[in-house]
């Protein structure tokens, strides 16, 4: 198996074009006004301009937005704990009412996701006017929609309301987060239909990705966001379309460092993993679960707030140029397990769950040995809640540091966060507050969540 990776340096020409055009530089709220709008409008009408914007969109998501999502959620959902004193990090770990809209880590995540989403929306708005083949248009359309869906999905996992479409005048309107998941599903389906009916051009494939890779990524995220939207049969159907033998990665180098490595390993370390990935005692992993040794080495230390911590050794995060999976193919199996359980098909759910629990290191499609490697067969004996608890535990272990732990914690009905600081709580917020900058500029900004 050969994994496909993003190669920033191979696309330096397009990245340089993007930087020169000024298209990447937008404000930190939803006001996307560009002072060079005439130049921008011209560049967006050219093939090289949209190719450059597409590369910049991918690069910015991989190096900025993705790391921000992963590390914030790691703290909020108790996957990790702080080991360095920064006020913004301390407030993030305190959570509850202590976390306000002026927290720079929350604001940064918000602005980075909307920034990438704005780039994707610019590509989508201009792609069909380009003087290129339909196959090239199909590819750019699908790539932009993939990243727009990623942003919508991450925003909907972390905020109660989402601006589904950016607004250049800073007056974006917000919709309930369920509608953002549904929009992500809609645009992923539209992209799949367009590729399957019209194909991709050699020009797009040579510069970006094959049809197989594009469809695997689109179906994988269609499965994820269908599950989050509560459309369980659609989630199952999409998950079954994904080739579980294929893996794809975000890649990094000395100029574009792995963003999780920067927070957990490099120089002034900010975060360390919680023991047992932060799972409570009632859901403690089997000590023989191979995923524990894959991610962690036990150390006799505690975090700043006194929580037992480990050392992170997962190969996805331990060097500055380590590659991060675009998604874990076995997420699809866990999606099927959960969706079947919620549909009442317990035998099918247990069968899927046991595929994850019994996976051996040599069967890991990520080629790194990520596997529970447990020999027993789990059975719930008809107890739906026990089955859901086991699926949740396996999601926390299989999908550690993927930015989905907060969504999972709420969706599986884990205990609500306390209103007062309690570092032993399973999560410290339900949703994040909106950035103060957005509230001060946009009259449509929703009220902050209660907690």
Notes on the protein architecture:
- This protein has helices at 12-21, 37-43, 47-76, 87-94, 104-126, 134-158, 177-198, 202-207, 211-229, 232-240, 259-264, 290-295, 331-342, 346-357, 384-398, 405-411, 436-441, and strands at 4-5, 80-82, 161-162, 175-176, 248-250, 271-273, 296-302, 308-312, 324-325.
- Helix 6 runs antiparallel to helix 7.
- The protein contains 17 helices and nine strands.
- The protein has one domain (4-435): Serine Threonine Protein Phosphatase 5, Tetratricopeptide repeat.
- Mean pLDDT is 92; it is low at 1-38.
- By secondary structure, the chain is mainly alpha-helical.
- The strands form four sheets. The protein has a three-stranded mixed beta sheet with strand order 1-5-9, with no helix packed on it. Strands 2-6 form a two-stranded antiparallel sheet. Strands 3-4 form a two-stranded antiparallel ribbon.
- The N and C termini lie far apart (45 Å).
């Amino acid at each position: 198996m050969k994994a496909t990776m993003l190669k920033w340096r191979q696309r330096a020409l397009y990245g340089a074009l993007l930087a020169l055009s000024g298209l990447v530089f937008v404000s930190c709220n939803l006001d996307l006004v560009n002072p060079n709008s005439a130049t921008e409008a011209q560049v967006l009408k050219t093939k090289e301009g949209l190719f450059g914007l597409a590369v910049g969109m991918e690069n910015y998501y991989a190096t900025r937005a993705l790391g921000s999502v992963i590390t914030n959620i790691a703290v909020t959902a108790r996957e990790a704990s702080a080991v360095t004193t920064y006020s913004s990090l301390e407030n993030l770990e305190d959570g509850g009412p202590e976390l306000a809209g002026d927290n720079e880590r929350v604001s940064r995540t918000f602005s980075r996701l909307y920034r990438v989403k704005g780039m994707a929306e610019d590509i989508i708005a201009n792609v069909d006017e380009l003087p290129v083949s339909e196959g090239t248009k199909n590819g750019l359309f699908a790539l932009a929609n993939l990243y727009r869906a990623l942003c919508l999905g991450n925003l909907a996992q972390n905020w109660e309301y989402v601006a589904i479409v950016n607004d250049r005048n800073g007056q974006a309107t917000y919709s309930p987060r369920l509608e953002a998941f549904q929009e992500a599903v809609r645009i992923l389906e539209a992209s799949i239909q367009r590729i399957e009916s019209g194909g991709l051009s050699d020009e797009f494939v040579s510069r970006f990705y094959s049809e197989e890779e594009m469809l695997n990524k689109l179906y994988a995220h269609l499965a994820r966001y269908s599950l989050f939207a509560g459309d369980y049969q659609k989630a199952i159907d999409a998950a079954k379309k994904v080739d579980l033998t294929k893996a794809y990665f975000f890649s990094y180098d000395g100029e574009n460092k792995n963003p999780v490595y920067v927070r957990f390993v490099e120089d002034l370390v900010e975060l360390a993993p919680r023991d047992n990935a932060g799972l409570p005692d009632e859901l403690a992993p089997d000590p023989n679960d191979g995923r524990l040794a894959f991610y962690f080495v036990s150390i006799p230390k505690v975090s700043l707030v006194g929580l037992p911590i480990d050392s992170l050794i997962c190969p996805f995060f331990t060097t500055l140029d380590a590659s991060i999976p675009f998604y874990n193919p076995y997420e699809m199996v866990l999606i099927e397990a959960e969706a079947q359980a919620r549909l009442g098909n317990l035998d099918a759910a247990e069968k899927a769950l046991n595929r994850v629990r019994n996976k051996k290191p040599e069967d890991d499609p990520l080629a790194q040995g990520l596997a529970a490697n447990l020999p027993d067969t789990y059975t719930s004996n008809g107890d739906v809640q026990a089955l859901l608890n086991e699926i949740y535990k396996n999601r926390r272990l299989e999908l550690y540091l993927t930015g989905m732990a907060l969504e999972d914690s709420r969706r599986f009905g884990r205990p609500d966060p306390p209103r007062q600081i309690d570092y032993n709580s399973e999560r410290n917020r339900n949703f994040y507050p909106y950035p103060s900058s957005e509230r001060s500029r946009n009259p449509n900004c929703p009220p902050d969540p209660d907690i």
